[in-house]
């Protein structure tokens, strides 16, 4: 199979790789090797995902019954509100925002660029510990005064509640710090550490995605930082900025909060789109269609994402005019997103498609993100959003894009790059089985929630009108399917680690630079810096 | 077309339409549903077709080398853009209708508290959950609060909160509005179906967020008038249909405003209060406004801000001399002076 | 692998960079990106301040009269001086003159300390007078001054919010909420900056920098200049608006 590779530098395989380069737990905890840091992030993120997932299963279990008698008598309205809050806080701040950049960005960015490491390796390690510190601080609230504000911390409730909000926002602030430092590292790496011959229009689309994400991280996260600080000051000192009794405006909090949190959802989804580009191209064995369009659409999404935060606030008391402005600009963000979808599908046209587990996950992304993205357009229309805001329709929408989108891509990425990370193959059948359960379970869980929203069921409800019960029960059963699917995926990963077949450098026949390095790569990625002579998708 | 749309959407999981606007929202919803279905078929269908048609046959398959197609890029940017602009505009029109308050109609005050809705009628009727006049059926163990409203007449709700942000949501009217402490927000509807419509709180507000529902009961106008009459608070505070709040306003008028403002249309020093609420006001500057709550409040606190054409700038500001409550009482009284 | 001076007096760059210059350029870009985040964070705070100032101008006007313009001005001069001495610290390191560099950097730290001492006096005075954020506020005289100010305002400048004098008296402490959060966050950055400057001073004294490599000094210097710049915006907005 004589396809042109991205570089003509041949790298021979050696037994010495980044995993066995140095031994002992301390060599891991003090490492500055971006690949080891990526693996440490992977372990942390999977752990937090498990915890957040358990909260989700508990939530959905509670929602099986419409009345106040739940499957577990421990779940009172107070406890339910805590479950709901922690599910959100953990999934948003500890899993999905760091998610793909921390694991795949860290591992792959330097390798895809032909570099030996990120620009600031020690800062990279520091970022990981700052992230863990933030997670610990936020997690401590479980013992100090369980949060019940929802992950959005809306004032005035978050000022008045007696739960440990200050610790929670301190934790989120710290995790935001880690996010900023990672983004900073990636931007400088992309600018300064590309291998000779690698111009910006020869870097893989995954790198473009991470790059655009990093720009958002730098510009948006500081505003979250100050918002959380001000909330803390409001609680501790009674500053008066958000508390109406002290002259403040509670809606101002929403403006500040969403100024970060809207771009944040693109931090969550752009890297996933980067993975999808890699997967579709590799498993269609065809050059990506519309490289330039996809690359620039990532930047366009990043830029426009800063101008739409008010679409979370159409019914907040914000002026009608503001609502209209935010609505029309939100529609604009839909266009680059649509462009990507069309380009990916066109990549498969006249390709050679094989549905290995990673490709199933990419297809799953296309299917689910289409639905999630289209329903986003519904919500961007002010007149329609008035009915749907704060109902289960919104819950369905964002789970379609965040789980059906980002988590699908994340899992696909795990199966795809597993050989590169660990030098072994996963069992593809297990991977495909996990996909069947996750994909099916996901639709069973969340599609009914669109209907529940149309029917008027509000979100964050412990007890609900019996008319909504049948669909809620279907949704709960779906959540069990998702849980089982992820257990199968975990089993596939563990099996791969323990008993997986040894992997070659390029088991998938892909064209990007990381596949020119051995599986797993040596400590320095490339003993000799490769010279890039071709684009990243030269399948011909 | 409209019938088809509304039948379709009535079956597509929306609650019964309680207002005409709900019907319009549902028409829009039907459009979104159908256009999304078509888009999904194109995208997902196309994807599925390609997966099947271009399934890998051998390990050394050759694939086409197609890097891009600018025409395609333009087409699938432009067409979605146009469709989204249509969606934006349609949504804007509906939003405008949902949010443009009626000139006349029943006004009911709504106060959201943790964890109940309180309704206050002009004639003094108060519907409070805990110590209320009326308690109706329950959902589970939660008592619903009832707001009785007239059929086919515009109703304007002036809303606020006493503590945290809540949201007043009527699925049957396809309308909701957050209620915010320290501010007033408004919500209007004209119910064109008799019956009961569910109200939910839909902004998370703490422990019993899911346990503060209410009901809007739409009754024929005559029945509404009778209900108002038979439920109004007893004698002492009532006088020919004037609310308790406005009663207090009368006293303030006598003491502070009578010297310059008449009630019968005659000119004393300042404009008469006869028909003042909602009347068009033209100012020296040439601008004009309809005398609503905000304008009247400003005129009391800071009359110099807007001087009505043809009148002297003689009114002293009452800022610091009247409390919020007193101003509310005066305005409520002004509303009754016809 | 940090950049260390070996016995032969040369600096080694980290292995993933091509040369020292490559490393220097990258480090500078990194520090600039971090400064962007600092500016955005303070920017959010400034936006909040400007919103409330336009809503409740009298409170901010009267509040600023409670700030000691003299002390604020001295602090401004102190910080600007410190930026100059910081620049000298970088310059001397560039020129392989560690002794002079250390003097310049130590002066910078002294300026920072002076700033914090003056700040301490300002803060303790206010705390003593009860001029603190809402929860702990206790100075009816300030509230009355706000009321008096509003009463003396020309009528055409009043808004409904401002006209509500009772409410304005109640929410007057908002000014000190902003004062303490803004100057407090800034002061926190002054302390961090001083510690960072101490770090590079020690490294300079130990001969760990030279004309080939002085990146950390320049990075810290950039941070310090931004801290100074933020004060240059804070000072007029808080102290001089009255």
Individual helix count of chain C: 9
Helical amount among residues of chain A, as a percent range?
Answer: 55-70%
Mean pLDDT of chain A: 94
Element string of chain A (H = helix, E = strand): HHHHHHHHHHHHHHHH
CATH topology of chain C: Four Helix Bundle (Hemerythrin (Met), subunit A)
In whole angstroms, how far apart are the ends of chain A?
10 Å
Q: What's the CATH topology label of chain A? A: Cytochrome C Oxidase, Chain A
Number of domains of chain C: 1
Query: Count of DSSP E strands of chain A?
Result: 0
- Rg for CA atoms of chain A: 23 Å
CATH architecture level-2 label of chain C: Up-down Bundle
- How are helices and strands ordered from N to C of chain C? HHHHHHHHH
- Report the CATH architecture of chain A: Up-down Bundle
CATH C-level class of chain C: Mainly Alpha
What is the overall silhouette of chain C? elongated
Class based on secondary structure composition and strand pairing of chain C = mainly alpha
Taking all residues together, what is the mean pLDDT of chain C? 92
If helices are DSSP runs of H or I spanning 4 or more residues, what is the number of helices of chain A?
16
CATH superfamily of chain C: Cytochrome c oxidase, subunit III, four-helix bundle
The best one-word shape of chain A is: globular
Query: How many beta-strand segments of chain C?
Result: 0
Secondary-structure map:
The complex is a heterotrimer of chains A (540), B (338) and C (242).
Chain A: H1 25-29, H2 34-62, H3 77-96, H4 99-113, H5 121-144, H6 157-160, H7 165-192, H8 205-237, H9 250-284, H10 291-304, H11 320-348, H12 357-380, H13 382-388, H14 392-422, H15 428-454, H16 469-499
Helix pairs in contact in A: 2-3, 2-4, 2-5, 2-16, 4-7, 4-8, 4-14, 5-7, 7-8, 8-9, 8-10, 9-11, 9-12, 9-14, 10-11, 11-12, 12-14, 12-15, 14-15, 14-16, 15-16
Chain B: H1 2-11, H2 20-53, H3 70-99, E1 106-113, E2 116-120, E3 126-127, E4 138-139, E5 142-143, E6 145-150, E7 154-161, E8 166-170, E9 175-179, E10 185-190, E11 195-201, E12 214-219, H4 221-231, H5 244-257, E13 280-282, E14 288-290, H6 293-301, H7 324-336
Parallel strand pairs in B: 1-7, 6-12
Antiparallel strand pairs in B: 1-2, 2-3, 4-5, 7-10, 8-9, 8-11, 11-12, 13-14
Chain C: H1 20-55, H2 57-65, H3 69-94, H4 98-129, H5 140-152, H6 160-163, H7 165-171, H8 174-205, H9 215-239
Helix pairs in contact in C: 1-2, 1-9, 2-5, 3-4, 3-9, 4-8, 5-7, 8-9
């Amino acid at each position: 199979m004589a396809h042109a590779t991205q570089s003509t530098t041949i790298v021979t395989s050696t037994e010495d790789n980044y995993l066995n380069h140095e031994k002992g737990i301390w060599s891991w905890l003090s490492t500055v090797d971006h690949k080891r840091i990526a693996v440490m992030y992977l372990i942390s993120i999977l752990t937090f995902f498990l915890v957040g997932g358990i909260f989700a299963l508990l939530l959905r279990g509670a929602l099986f019954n419409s009345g106040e008698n739940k499957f577990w008598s421990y779940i009172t309205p107070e406890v339910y509100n805590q479950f709901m809050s922690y599910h959100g806080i953990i999934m948003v701040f500890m899993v999905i925002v760091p998610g793909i950049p921390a694991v795949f960005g860290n591992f792959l960015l330097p390798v895809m660029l032909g570099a030996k490491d990120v620009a600031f390796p020690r800062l990279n390690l520091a970022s990981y510990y700052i992230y863990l510190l933030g997670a610990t601080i936020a997690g401590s609230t479980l013992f100090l005064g369980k949060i019940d504000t929802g992950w959005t911390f809306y004032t005035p409730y978050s000022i008045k509640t007696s739960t440990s909000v200050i610790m929670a926002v301190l934790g989120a602030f710290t995790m935001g710090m880690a996010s900023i430092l990672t983004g900073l590292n990636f931007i400088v790496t992309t600018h300064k550490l590309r291998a000779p011959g690698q111009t910006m229009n020869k870097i893989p689309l995954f790198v473009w995605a991470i790059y655009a994400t990093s720009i958002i991280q730098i510009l948006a996260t500081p505003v979250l930082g100050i918002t959380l600080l001000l909330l803390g000051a409001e609680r501790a000192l009674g500053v008066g900025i958000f508390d109406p009794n002290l002259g403040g405006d509670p809606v101002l909090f929403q403006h500040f909060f969403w100024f970060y949190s809207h771009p944040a959802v693109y931090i969550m989804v752009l890297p996933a789109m980067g993975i999808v580009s890699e997967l579709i191209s590799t498993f269609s064995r065809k050059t990506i269609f519309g490289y330039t369009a996809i690359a620039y659409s990532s930047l366009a999404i990043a830029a426009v994402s800063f101008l739409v935060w008010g679409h979370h606030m159409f019914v907040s008391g914000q002026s009608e005019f503001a609502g209209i402005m935010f609505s029309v600009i939100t529609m604009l963000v839909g266009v680059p997103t649509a462009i990507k979808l069309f380009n990916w599908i066109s990549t498969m046209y006249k390709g050679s498609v094989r549905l290995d587990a990673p490709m199933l996950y990419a297809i799953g992304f296309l299917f689910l993100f289409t639905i999630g993205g289209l329903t986003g357009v519904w919500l961007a229309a002010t007149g329609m959003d008035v009915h749907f805001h704060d109902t289960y329709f919104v819950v369905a929408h964002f789970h379609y894009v965040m789980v059906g989108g980002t988590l699908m891509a994340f899992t696909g990425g795990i199966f795809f790059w597993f050989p590169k990370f660990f030098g072994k193959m996963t069992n593809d059948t297990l991977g495909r089985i996990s996909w069947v359960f996750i994909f099916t379970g996901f639709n069973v869980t969340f599609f009914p929630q669109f209907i529940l929203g149309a029917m008027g069921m509000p979100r964050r409800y412990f007890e609900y009108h019996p008319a909504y019960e049948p669909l809620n029960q279907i949704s709960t059963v779906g959540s069990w399917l998702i849980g089982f699917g992820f257990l199968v995926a975990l089993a596939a990963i563990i099996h791969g680690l323990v008993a997986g077949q040894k992997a070659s450098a390029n088991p998938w026949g892909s064209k990007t630079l990381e596949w020119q390095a051995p599986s797993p790569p040596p400590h320095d990625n490339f003993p000799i810096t490769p010279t890039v002579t071709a684009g990243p998708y030269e399948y011909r | 077309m409209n019938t088809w749309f509304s039948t379709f959407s009535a079956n597509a999981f929306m609650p019964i339409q309680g207002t005409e606007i709900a019907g319009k929202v549902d028409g829009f919803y039907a459009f979104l549903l159908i256009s999304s279905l078509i888009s999904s078929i194109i995208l997902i269908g196309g994807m599925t077709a390609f997966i099947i048609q271009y399934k890998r046959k051998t390990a050394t398959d050759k694939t086409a080398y197609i890097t891009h197609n600018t025409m395609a890029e333009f087409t699938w940017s432009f067409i979605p853009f146009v469709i989204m602009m249509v969606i934006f505009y349609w949504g804007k029109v509906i939003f405008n209708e949902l949010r443009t308050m009626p000139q006349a109609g029943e006004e009911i005050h709504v106060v959201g508290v943790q964890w109940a809705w309180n309704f206050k009628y002009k004639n003094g009727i108060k519907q409070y959950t805990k110590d209320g006049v009326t308690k109706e059926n329950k959902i589970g163990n939660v008592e619903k609060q009832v707001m009785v409203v007239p059929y086919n007449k515009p109703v304007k709700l002036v809303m606020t909160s006493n503590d945290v942000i809540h949201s007043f949501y009527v699925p049957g009217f396809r309308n909701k509005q957050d209620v915010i402490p320290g501010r007033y927000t408004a919500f209007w509807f004209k119910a064109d179906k008799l019956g009961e419509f569910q109200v939910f709180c839909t902004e998370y507000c703490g422990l019993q967020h899911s346990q503060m529902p209410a009901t809007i009961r739409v009754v024929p106008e005559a029945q509404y008038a009778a209900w108002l009459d038979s439920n109004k608070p007893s004698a002492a505070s009532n006088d020919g249909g004037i609310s308790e709040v406005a009663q207090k306003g009368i006293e303030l008028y006598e003491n502070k405003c009578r010297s310059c403002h008449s009630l019968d249309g005659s000119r004393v020093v300042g404009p008469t209060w006869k028909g003042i609420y909602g009347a068009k006001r033209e100012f020296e500057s040439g601008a004009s406004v309809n005398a609503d709550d905000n304008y009247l409040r400003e005129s009391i606190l800071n009359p110099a801000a807007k001087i009505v054409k043809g009148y002297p700038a003689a009114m002293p500001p009452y800022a610091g001399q009247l409390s919020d409550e007193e101003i509310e009482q005066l305005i409520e009284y002004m509303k009754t002076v016809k | 692998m940090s950049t260390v001076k070996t016995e032969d007096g040369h600096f080694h760059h980290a292995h993933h960079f091509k040369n020292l210059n490559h490393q220097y350029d990258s480090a500078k870009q990194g520090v600039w990106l971090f400064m962007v985040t600092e500016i955005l964070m303070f920017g959010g705070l400034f936006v909040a301040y400007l919103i409330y100032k336009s809503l409740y101008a009298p409170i901010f006007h009267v509040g600023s009269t409670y700030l000691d313009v003299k002390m604020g001005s001295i602090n401004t001069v102190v910080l600007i001086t410190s930026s100059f001495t910081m620049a000298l610290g970088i310059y001397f390191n560039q020129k392989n003159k560690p002794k002079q560099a250390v003097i310049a950097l130590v002066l910078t730290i002294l300026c920072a300390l002076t700033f914090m001492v003056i700040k301490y006096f300002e803060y303790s005075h206010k705390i003593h007078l009860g001029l603190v954020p809402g929860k702990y506020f206790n100075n009816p005289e300030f509230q009355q001054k706000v009321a008096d100010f509003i009463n003396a305002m020309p009528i055409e400048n009043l808004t409904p919010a401002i006209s509500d004098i009772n409410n304005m008296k109640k929410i007057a402490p908002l000014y000190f909420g902003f004062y303490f959060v803004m100057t407090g966050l800034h002061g926190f950055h002054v302390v961090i900056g001083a510690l960072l400057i101490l770090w590079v001073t020690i490294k300079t004294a130990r001969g760990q920098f030279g004309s080939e490599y002085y990146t950390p000094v320049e990075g810290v210097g950039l941070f310090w200049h931004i801290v100074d710049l933020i004060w240059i915006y804070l000072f007029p907005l808080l102290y001089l608006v009255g």
